Amino acid sequence: MPDGLWIGLTAVFVVFYLVFFAVQARYLFGAFTRSLPEGFIVSQYAREGFFELCKVMAVNFALLWLVTRSARSFAQESRPLRVLCLLLLAESLLFAVVAGSKLGLYISCFGFTPLRLESSWLVCVLAAGCVAAGLGLYGKKGVFRAWMVFGAASLALLQLV
User: Who contacts 116 (Cβ-Cβ below 8 Å, separation ≥6)?
Assistant: First the structure.
């Protein structure tokens, strides 16, 4: 597919997320100041943040996969497309940080449970996936494998806890 199409589509996502962060800043970043949006309870706030992260990551990783597999010149160093993909990954990482802060607030109020611990683990694995994908965009070999090993090993250790 033409690079212009992928550049345009990726730019739409990047700009959409920037506008979303600006408009929803109070909701998104409330856990950093330990203030809940009106009408929310801590558990609801954390759950919604976690599931929002899962949905956003699924969409963003699918888009990234499509772009890197079907853009004509991605293999020949399409700088604008790489920059947009990195911005998309940075925004995904910010979503992971936000979800982690919401879970952190929840855990600080009510303590750890196995489900909260597993949710925190997944947030960390998704954040590491963003970093690995960013490194992979610049030709680092073996980052996907390292990410998978990190996910599997950390899950195995988590199950021992």
Answer: 103, 106, 107
The one-character DSSP state at 74 is S
How would you write the pLDDT of the chain (161 residues) with one tens digit per residue?
777 888 899 999 999 999 999 999 988 998 898 888 888 999 999 999 999 999 999 999 999 999 888 876 665 567 888 899 999 999 999 999 999 999 999 999 999 899 999 999 999 999 999 999 999 888 788 899 999 999 999 999 998 87
How far apart, in whole angstroms, are the C-alpha atoms of residue 81 and residue 37?
A: 36
Helices (H), 24-161: 25-28, 42-70, 79-110, 114-137, 143-160
Concatenated DSSP letters for 84-115?
HHHHHHHHHHHHHHHHHHHHHHHHHHH---HH
Residue 73 contacts residue 4 (beta carbons within 8 Å): no
By the 10 Å C-beta count (0-12 exposed, 13-18 middle, 19+ buried), 64 is classed as buried
Cβ pair 42, 109 in contact under 8 A: yes
SS3 label, residue 35 = coil
